[in-house]
TrEMBL record:
Main location: membrane
Sequence intervals crossing the membrane: 107-125, 145-163, 204-226, 246-269, 276-298, 310-328
GO terms (BP aspect): signal peptide processing
Pfam family, one: Rhomboid
Stored SUPFAM superfamilies: Rhomboid-like (SSF144091)
Source organism of the structure: Saccharomyces cerevisiae x Saccharomyces kudriavzevii (strain VIN7)
Cross-referenced Gene3D superfamilies: Rhomboid-like
GO molecular function: serine-type endopeptidase activity
Entry GO terms, CC: membrane
Record's protein name: Pcp1p
Similarity section: Belongs to the peptidase S54 family.
Topological type in the membrane: Multi-pass membrane protein
Sequence ranges assigned to domain Peptidase S54 rhomboid in this UniProt record: 185-329
């Protein structure tokens, strides 16, 4: 697809517009991106000697993403002392959580909540951006919606640098696999980054693909795509350890579920658009690059290599392709209706 029609294309009158006017994407347009959602590793709750197991795991798990699993004491402040200069504690302090007596992760209720949120966002976003400030501003400035999402991610990253905020962030901005501290984390974790390189790479992907796609689809549709891809990524991330029967699991965070959704939608709509992986052009265009990312994430789930949350990547990718397919079908139906209407005049 070398371009987009210069007329307004809508799925339903006055509700959901899929493409804005006078926007085109040619195969010569180049996009650059790197997307990653990190996942930490923790010890089974019933480990006989927690500190010994942490020491042993440090020898076999890549230390970049390693997470200590010491239990929070009744008085939480002592864990935020000078010892937090330790690299592993600082980079993965969110893993120092309090054991929950209830145990278990309510996957059923989390899935129902996630699907309900996805439906609410899809059907409610047109009204939100039509009538509710400040969302109404983004209707005429869709690129600024992407910058607002960038700002939220940067702000949460800043909060991770403040020890007084760690308890709050641990509860709402981490997707726990062993138990749920707050169901809001199904969304909050998608705006959370602890390491600067993780934030930088994800925000580069959001800026590169998001600004173009938001202008094409409009703020309402882009917001729906982004948020629902993030939720789908979280749901896949929650279900994967159970389906794969993993004995060692840990919390995850990052915007990559949403970003893979944006990449999937963009690649489906503009399969021949040129993109770069860092500074290297990807042969075959956007769709080939996207399929390669799906293969990489599927292999990561099957072979369980590294410390990325491959399941979240796949969940976001699937949602993005579904959006791309649905939008393309809606646009084609509108084109057929316009041709039929024009034919009556000749």
């Amino acid at each position: 697809m070398s371009g987009v029609s210069s007329v307004m294309l809508g799925l339903r009158p006055a509700t959901r517009i899929f493409f804005r006017s006078n926007i085109s994407v040619s195969p010569s347009r180049t996009f650059v991106s790197y997307i990653g959602r990190s996942q930490s590793t923790s010890i089974l709750k019933n480990a006989p000697n927690l500190e010994d197991n942490v020491t042993n795991l440090q020898k076999i798990i890549p230390k970049r993403f390693f997470s200590q699993t010491s239990i929070l004491k009744s008085r939480w402040k002592p864990i935020f002392n000078e010892e937090t200069t330790n690299r592993y504690v600082r980079l993965n302090r969110f893993q120092q959580y309090q054991q929950q007596r209830s145990g278990g992760n309510p996957l059923g209720s989390m899935t129902i909540l996630g699907l309900s949120l996805m439906a609410g966002i899809y059907f409610g976003s047109p009204y939100l951006f039509e009538h509710v400030p400040p969302f109404t501003y983004f209707k005429t400035h869709p690129k600024n919606l992407v910058y607002a999402l960038l700002g939220i991610n940067v702000a949460v990253f800043g909060l991770w640098q403040l020890p007084k905020c760690w308890r709050f962030l641990q509860k709402y901005m981490l997707l726990q696999k062993d138990y749920v501290t707050s169901k809001i984390s199904i969304i909050g974790s998608a705006f959370s980054h602890q390491e600067f390189w993780h934030l930088g790479m994800n925000m580069l992907g959001l800026w590169s693909f998001g600004t173009s796609l938001a202008t094409m689809l409009g703020a309402s549709n882009f917001f729906s795509l982004y948020m629902n891809s993030a939720i789908a990524g979280s749901l896949f991330s929650l279900w994967y350890p159970k389906l794969a029967r993993l004995a060692i699991v840990g919390p995850s965070l990052g915007a990559s579920g949403a970003l893979f959704g944006v990449l999937g939608c963009f690649s489906y709509l503009f399969p021949h658009a040129k993109i770069l992986l860092f500074v290297f052009p990807v042969p075959g265009g956007a769709w080939v690059a996207f399929l390669a990312s799906v293969a990489w994430n599927a292999a990561g789930c099957a072979l369980r290599w590294g410390s990325f949350d491959y399941a979240a990547h796949l969940g976001g990718s699937m949602m993005g392709v579904l959006y791309g397919w649905y939008i393309s079908k809606a646009v084609e139906k509108q084109r057929q209706r316009r041709l039929q209407a024009a034919g009556r005049w000749f």
